[in-house]
Amino acid sequence: MKQTRSKIAFTPESQESLSMTGKPVLHYLNGRGRMESIRWLLAAAGVEFEEKLFENREEFEKLIQGGTLMYGQVPMVEMDGMNLVQTRAILRYIAAKYGLYGRNLEEQAWIDMYVEGLRDLSDMIMFLPLSLPEEKEMNHDYVLHRAMTRFFPVYEKALRDNKQHYLVGNRLSWADVQLLEVILMAEECKASVLSGFPHLQDFKVRTSQIPTINRFLQPGSQRKPPLDAESLGIAKDIFKFEQGMFLKNMSTVVAEY
Hints:
Layout: H1 12-20, E1 25-29, H2 35-44, E2 50-54, H3 57-65, E3 76-79, E4 82-85, H4 87-97, H5 105-126, H6 136-162, H7 174-189, H8 198-208, H9 211-216, H10 229-239, H11 246-252
Parallel strand pairs: 1-2
Antiparallel strand pairs: 1-3, 3-4
Helix pairs in contact: 2-4, 2-7, 5-6, 5-7, 6-8, 7-8
């Protein structure tokens, strides 16, 4: 699916005007990647945000040269007077700020454990488009097998045992938001992936109906579609990663993606 691009020019004037809105400003390419979970979490928290999207390597290098990227990497989010980098640091800050990071240290530890597992699974799904044609079916089957035998059973049990409609405690958390995101990513690979997980099925329906999340799921929102061939080519040119070697890419791809 080709997405209409609303591009913001890289000028000092636009930088100032965006910052003056008081909304977080997200710096990334026009695609999912590491930024998508940040979009999800802000949307679930009901926080409006702006996006400053680069479309080629030159624009990305201009951002690096501007000195706002601590490690020369994105995602980067301008928020509360800071230039936040490193995906998990950004997500943890947003979750804590908007009451999505548990009520105490014990709940935060459970949230972190669930989120780290979901990160592992989402990375596998995210790098599937990098498969070579001869690898594609094997990698697709591998990811689905891991989802259904290693990851989803953990979250099925957590929902069954907690009996509160959420993974942790009795209210929505960062872990719930990320679980829904990853469920929908997995269903893009196989629509029936949840067939053996009734609690996850109920969770998906229930969580999708939360008003802030439901708005993010509607057409025209800032949620990004899966990579198509054109978008994949742009991402490869910007971040200089290779196609093929699926498992190697998952573990060693440059952190800037």
